[in-house]
Each structure stands twice: as C-alpha cells, then as structure tokens.
UniProtKB/TrEMBL annotation, chain A:
NDH-1 is composed of 14 different subunits. Subunits NuoA, H, J, K, L, M, N constitute the membrane sector of the complex. NDH-1 shuttles electrons from NADH, via FMN and iron-sulfur (Fe-S) centers, to quinones in the respiratory chain. The immediate electron acceptor for the enzyme in this species is believed to be ubiquinone. Couples the redox reaction to proton translocation (for every two electrons transferred, four hydrogen ions are translocated across the cytoplasmic membrane), and thus conserves the redox energy in a proton gradient. This subunit may bind ubiquinone. GO terms for molecular function: NADH dehydrogenase activity; oxidoreductase activity, acting on NAD(P)H, quinone or similar compound as acceptor; quinone binding. It is an enzyme of class 7 (translocase). Its EC number is 7.1.1.-. It is a multi-pass membrane protein. The chain crosses the membrane at residues 7-26, 79-98, 110-133, 154-175, 181-200, 229-253, 265-286, 298-321. This is NADH-quinone oxidoreductase subunit H. It is found in: Cell membrane; Membrane. It catalyses: a quinone + NADH + 5 H(+)(in) = a quinol + NAD(+) + 4 H(+)(out).
Automatic annotation (TrEMBL), chain B:
This is NADH-quinone oxidoreductase subunit J. It is an enzyme of class 7 (translocase). It is a multi-pass membrane protein. NDH-1 shuttles electrons from NADH, via FMN and iron-sulfur (Fe-S) centers, to quinones in the respiratory chain. Couples the redox reaction to proton translocation (for every two electrons transferred, four hydrogen ions are translocated across the cytoplasmic membrane), and thus conserves the redox energy in a proton gradient. Its EC number is 7.1.1.-. GO terms for cellular component: plasma membrane. The keyword Zinc does not apply.
UniProtKB/TrEMBL annotation, chain C:
[4Fe-4S] cluster 1 binds at residues 55, 58, 61, 114. The keyword Iron applies. NDH-1 shuttles electrons from NADH, via FMN and iron-sulfur (Fe-S) centers, to quinones in the respiratory chain. The immediate electron acceptor for the enzyme in this species is believed to be ubiquinone. Couples the redox reaction to proton translocation (for every two electrons transferred, four hydrogen ions are translocated across the cytoplasmic membrane), and thus conserves the redox energy in a proton gradient. This is NADH-quinone oxidoreductase subunit I. It is found in: Cell membrane.
Length: 322, 226, 230
C-alpha cells in the first residue's frame, strides 16, 4: 500500500513537472525572444506581463475544430501527436534531479540508453504525421525530419557514450555521483556536441529545416489543428526540458554545486537546466536557419569527428588515471 | 534486402522468441501456477507475434513499417521482462529509433500511397512462408538445444541488485570477457560495411573530375543567408 | 572566404550572441498603444477634415479621388442681385459631403487639389467601427475632424504675410475706416437690411474670420494630441 502510494506520488510529481516545465520554458521563450528583438512580448493575458499567455493559447487550441484531412490516413494521423509526446514523459521519469532514491521518478539501470532510445522514438511521431497527412509539405517535412534524425542521433550517442565511459556506468544517477568538477573541461567537447545534436534532434532553430515555415509551411505538422497541434508544440517544449535536463545530468554535474550541496541539490539541477533552456532560446533568436546540405555536412564532418575525438580523449585520460 | 524480406525475418524472430520462452519456462514451473511476469510475457509475446504477422500481411506499406515498430517494441518489452534491460533499450534505440526511421525514410521516397498498394503482394507468399518457418524452426531448435535446462533468475532484478542476470554490468562482462572475439569480428564487419558504403556513395561519373557539390563553390556570403 | 579576414573561428557566432544579449538588456521600443498614445508626427495622415465654409462644390476632390470615395451633393440657389437692377447670381449650396474611409487609401490627392483649402489632414486615427457603413463620414463628422487639425507650422521670421491674412487685413482695415467715417454721419447704407446687400455682408464676414478655424482648434501646435478626442 505504501509502495503504491509512493509510486503514485512520484508519477504525479513527474506528470505535473511534465505539464508545467514546458509551459514555463515556452513563456520564457515568448518573453526572452521578444526582448532580444526589442519587443515586449505578450503583456495582457493574466494581467502581469502576460504570464498566462500559454494558458490562454491552450484554451484557444482546445476550442478549435479537430480536422483530419480527407485524404489522410486517419488513425495514424490521429495517433502521431501521442507518439511524439509520450516518450518525453517517459524520459522525464528517468532524469534524477537530486541525490538519492527520492529525487528520481524511476531509477533505470541503463539510464543513458533508455533516455536516448525513448527520445529517438519520439521522432517517429513526426514521421507518422508527415506521411499520414497526405500533403506534400508534410511529406517533405517528414523526409527532412528522418534525414536529420539519422544524421544527429550518432553524434549524440557518441557524446553520451563518452561521459558514460568517464563515469564507468550507464545509469544516470551513477554518472552524476561520479562527477568531479574537472570533468567539465575534460568533457566540454562532448557536452557541446551532445547539446547541439540534441537541438537538431528537437528541430529547434537554427536546425529547424524540417519545419521551416517560410518554405514548407510547418513541415510534418502542417495539417494539424487544435489540440493535436498543441500536443506537437508541447512535445517540442518538453523536448527542450528533457534535453537541458539530460545535458545537466550528463555533463554539468547535476546536483553538484559550489556550495549548498546537501538538501538543495535539486535547486542546482533546476538552475542549470533553466540556464541551458535560456541558451536554447538565445540560439534560436540569434542564428538563421541552416540549409539542408549544411545541416548534413555539419553533423557528418564536424560533430561526428568531434564526438569520436572526445571518446578517444576520454579513453586516454581514463587509462592514464588508472 | 527488401523491407518485406526484413519483415519476414523479424517476424520469424518474433515467433522464435515466443516459442523459446514457452519451451524454456513451461517445464520448470508448469502452466497451472504461472507468475504475473509469465502471464505478461505470454501476452506481450502474443501481441508481438500478431504485430509481426500483420507486418508481413498488410497491404499498406507504411502500416507495415509501423506494425514493425510494435513488433520490435514488443520484443524490447520481452527483454525487459527477462531483466535484460540493456538489451531492451538497445533494441529500441537501434531498431525503433534507427532502422524503422530509415525504413520510413526509404518509404517516403517511394510512391507508397495512403491506403492499399495493389501490387504489395509479390507472389512469393509460399516461398516467404517456407523461409520464415524454416528459419523459425532452425532458431527454435538451436536455442532450445542450447539452453535446455537454463533457468533465468528473475527475482534478482526485482530486488534491484547488481547481480540481475540481464543488467548492464553482467551483459558487459559477458560480452567483453567471454565473447570478445566475436564482438571484434563483428566490429570489423561493420567497419567494412561502413567503408563500403562510403566508397559506393562517393563514386562519381567518369566525366566530371570535380565531385564537390555545388554548395561548396558558392561564395561565402551566401552561406546561411536564409 | 579570405583567411586574413577570419580572425578566430566562431568569433562571428559569438558576435551574434552578443548582439541579441545586448538588445535584451536595452529598453524595448514597443508602444503599448491602447494604454499609451503613440508618438505620431504632427502631419500624420490620420483622417480628413472638411472646412465646409471654404467649399464651393467645385467637385475637384471628388473627380481626382482615385478611389471614388468622396460623395458630394449640391444644388444651385439664386441669389438676388447685389445692387438694385443688377443681375441675379447663382451660388452652389452644399447638401452632402461624405468620405467613405473604407475605400479611402489616404493618398491625400483631394487635399492637394482643393483650390479653396476646404480639406485638411488631421492626425486622428481612432475611428474604427464595427459596421463598415459607419466608416462613411458625413459632413458633420468631417467638420468635427476639422477641430483636430493642427495649426500650420509657423512661417520663417521675416517672411511675407500669407496672402489670405493680407487680404483679410486689407478688408478689415477698409471696413474699419468706413465705420469711422460713418460714425460721424450715419449713411443710408448702414441701415439697409443685410438681406439686400448680401455680398458686402459676406465680405465683411469673411474678413472677420480666418480662413481656417484656428481659434476653435484644440490643436494649436504641431505636437500630436495625447488625450483622446471628445
């Protein structure tokens, strides 16, 4: 009975975080992006500086008609948003925010693999949407999504493998437990590769070729309306949370901080995640979109070699230390 | 290998897996007092098998690929139930995350219609069935013969101990202590495949002596102009 | 991509990040419109005001309008001769003057072509309606806009007086002189009913009023008004 309560409580907390954090990131994006462009952003919804803008958006989406195109593959079209969103919920379950058993939804033995595997599944949602919409823009978006995933999954995995090598474990809490401050310079290349490849996998600008709105409308999500469209958007922001959380846990030492480590570890984790989320938004505002060939070239000729070099470096240092 | 053939093979594997489990567990504990894990295992096995059958029989190509996702995911769940967590996640990562994405990517490049493809039946039904049954039989026979009396201790994993039979540590130790040579041989094979792929994709027409793509010759000011 | 110009690889990327970050710390340029009025230039083309008294129904504005959005109705009235035995005069009387702002493209041609300075730009812009028919502003509404027209910019120091003012002053001086002379010996003409000498009377009236209603305008300067109109 106590166990059941414990599980239910954990699930509830993760679920609330899953609903709240992406909205916070989204609202931050509204405001940060606006100020970086010399604007104010939403100011009215909710009264104080438009804090409830995304809530209002959600209400608006819920009111809209749920349209399925006549030529579409109905069931797959309707299933796609769930496939895109749910994996991030599962991933969030495995990210530890603080030390000990109490601060993770569910400790997973092969955490790194679990997280990366499930994140890869999320992209299937975009592919399903792209194919099932019976729309050429959607199809193009789906194709680009697939090409991008194939290109960026590899450097992401390699970078994660490097840090797993350094820690000698593939469990996420284990990696953070093994973290030392000098890992930061040691794994910095891997961290950058992981973060950039993660951005590309989420199709965030400047890697948003699959949804490039100025040329293919909204890629795989072109035909979606109402709540299903909102689910795709939510998946994107949940993806940001997950990516930033993962980068924090893998490369930035999670709950380790210069001071106040005991009991306040989760604050450090959240703080680092928030800073990374800010960086994600910052990058979006700053850089123009990469062209498709530049995207592929960037991954195969820069990120993959860098990740391999990082693995080699990790191996050498590891052997030398021992 | 065509997607259909891959699907057939994988379906065969799925079949195999189901059979192996029945064979391995049934005699030790009997059918009359099954544990929850066993029931779940059987149910997931049935789902996996069904998905595999639909994969090879459906006439909607993309549906076949998506049913393949279900079949592969079902296999991953089976691995999980056998406490082989690492293998399960790698299964998801490689097959669902990469192989199926590649399959879908290929399918999107074709003219696969939404709805039934009239020519999805290749006419090799009998041959495919024969191959599937034969490979399933071979695998079942080999596995049953090899692991006749092996009993997988599931309880170690439930307790969350390090000693679970399928944990990452155990798998890694087995792989790099007992099976290093096959592992390295596979690595070499994969490397050869990689090199081969690069060579094939870099082949240019004999006339052109400059194989660089047009984008490289653009003035730098246009790079990233969009 | 010349090597000499590239200093450090990635420095351009860093510069871009610096630009966005710097912009974030600066004050935004957004004007929160309904809460605070925008800072418009004084000659903003907001709406067109009609100074009816100057209109002679010459129809030039209506004819030149590219959108055909000016509607003018008028009739002729005969005016009795100015002097006994003279010819009767006919005069145009404005019945309707309307501008359909749902068609208007704010080119300002009507204002340019008006030979009698009857049309003016006003910077007012808050006249949105829920019914498109209400965007056709009739004569009375156009006159209301007239009170919001800002005064013309001041002339250069030492510049010649505007012709209208000069003419008006001349008439006023004449009138004053005549009144001085008639004050000594009241003539018959001063007791004549105004109806019989409309022309002179009109001239006198024209002299007393300026060509544009500057006295009534609440917009005396070139600064845009910040408060809402009544």
């Amino acid at each position: 009975m106590n166990d059941a309560l414990d599980v239910a409580l954990r699930l509830l907390v993760v679920f609330v975080a899953f609903l709240a954090l992406p909205l916070i990131v989204g609202q931050t994006e509204h405001k940060v992006m606006a100020h970086m462009q010399g604007r104010l952003g939403p100011m009215h919804a909710g009264g104080f500086h438009g804090w409830a803008q995304l809530v209002a958006d959600g209400v608006k989406f819920a009111q809209k008609e749920d349209v399925v195109p006549a030529g579409a593959d109905r069931r797959i079209f309707q299933l796609a948003p769930a496939v895109a969103l749910l994996p991030y919920l599962l991933v969030l379950l495995a990210i530890p925010v603080g030390p000990g058993e109490g601060a993770v939804g569910q400790a997973v033995d092969a955490g790194v693999f679990f997280v990366l595997a499930v994140m890869g599944v999320g992209v299937l949602g975009s592919l399903m949407a792209g194919w099932a919409s019976a729309n050429k823009f959607s199809l193009l978006g789906g194709l680009r999504t697939a090409a991008q995933l194939l290109a960026y999954e590899l450097p992401m995995l390699l970078a994660a493998a490097s840090v797993a090598m350094a820690a000698g474990t593939v469990s996420l809490p284990g990696i953070v437990d093994a973290f030392q401050w000098w890992w930061l310079p040691w794994q910095i290349v891997g961290a950058l590769v992981f973060f950039v490849a993660g951005l590309a996998e989420l199709q965030r600008p400047p890697f948003d070729m699959p949804v490039a709105d100025s040329e293919i409308i909204f890629g795989a999500y072109t035909e979606y309306t109402g709540l299903r469209f909102a689910l795709f958007l939510l998946a994107e922001y949940a993806g940001i949370v997950v990516l930033c959380g993962l980068t924090t846990v893998l490369f930035l030492g999670g709950w380790h901080g210069p001071w106040g480590a005991d009991g306040l570890g989760w604050v450090w984790t959240l703080l680092k995640t928030a800073v990374l989320a800010f960086v994600v938004i910052w990058l979006r505002v700053t850089y123009p979109r990469l062209r498709e060939d530049q995207l592929q070239k960037f991954s195969w000729t820069l990120l993959v070699p860098l990740a391999l070099a990082q693995i080699a470096l990790t191996g050498v240092v590891k052997v030398v230390i021992q | 290998m065509t997607p259909a053939a891959t699907a057939v093979l994988l379906a065969a594997q799925a079949q195999t897996h189901t059979h192996v489990q029945v064979q391995a567990q049934a005699p030790a504990q009997g059918f009359l007092s099954p544990t929850g894990v066993e029931i779940a295992f059987l149910l997931v096995g049935v789902v996996t098998f069904g998905a595999a059958v639909v994969t090879v029989t459906t006439r909607q190509l993309v549906h076949a690929a998506l049913w393949l996702v279900v079949a592969l995911g079902g296999l991953a769940v089976e691995y999980l139930l056998l406490t082989a967590e690492f293998i399960a996640w790698v299964q998801v990562l490689i097959y669902v995350g990469s192989v199926v994405v590649l399959l879908l990517f290929g399918l999107m490049l074709t003219k696969a219609p939404i709805g039934r493809s009239p020519d999805a039946d290749s006419g090799n039904r009998r041959a495919a069935l024969a191959v599937a049954v034969a490979s399933a039989a071979a695998l079942v026979w080999v596995v049953v013969d090899a692991f006749r009396t092996t009993w997988i201790d599931l309880d170690g994993a439930v307790a969350g101990a390090e000693g679970a039979r399928g944990s990452t540590q155990v798998t890694g130790e087995a792989l790099f202590r007992n099976w290093v040579l096959p592992f390295e041989a596979l690595s070499v094979l994969l490397l050869a495949a990689l090199v081969g792929a690069i060579v094939l994709s870099r082949r240019t027409s004999p006339g052109s002596d400059r194989p660089t793509p047009a984008s490289d010759r653009r003035p730098p000011s246009q790079e990233g102009a969009r | 991509m010349t090597m000499s110009r590239r200093s450090v690889p990635g420095s351009g990327l860093a510069k871009g990040l610096a630009v966005t970050l710097r912009t974030m710390t600066r004050k935004t340029v957004t004007e929160q419109y309904p809460e605070s009025q925008p800072h418009l230039p004084p000659r903003t083309r907001g709406v067109i005001g009609l100074f009816e008294e100057n209109c002679t129904v010459c129809m030039l504005c209506a004819r030149e309008c590219p959108d055909w959005c000016i509607y003018i109705d008028s009739h002729k009235e005969t005016v009795p001769p100015a002097a006994p035995g003279g010819r009767e005069r006919s005069r145009n009387v404005l019945d309707r003057f309307a501008i359909d702002f749902s068609l208007c493209m704010y080119c300002g041609i009507c204002i340019e072509v008006c030979p009698f300075d009857a049309l003016f730009w006003s910077p007012e812009f808050e006249y949105a309606e829920t019914d498109i028919r209400d965007l056709t502003h009739e004569r009375d509404k156009l006159r209301e806009w007239m009170w919001t027209v800002p005064a013309p910019p001041a002339l250069d120091a030492g510049a010649e007086e505007p012709k209208e003012v000069a003419a008006a002053r001349k008439t006023a001086d004449k009138l004053a002189a005549r009144q001085q002379t008639t004050a000594a010996e009241p003539p018959a003409r001063a007791t004549t009913p105004t109806g019989t000498v409309p022309h002179a009377d009109e001239q006198a009236r024209a002299a007393e009023r300026p060509t544009r209603p500057m006295g009534d305008s609440r917009q005396q300067t070139d600064q845009p008004r910040q408060e809402g109109r009544e």
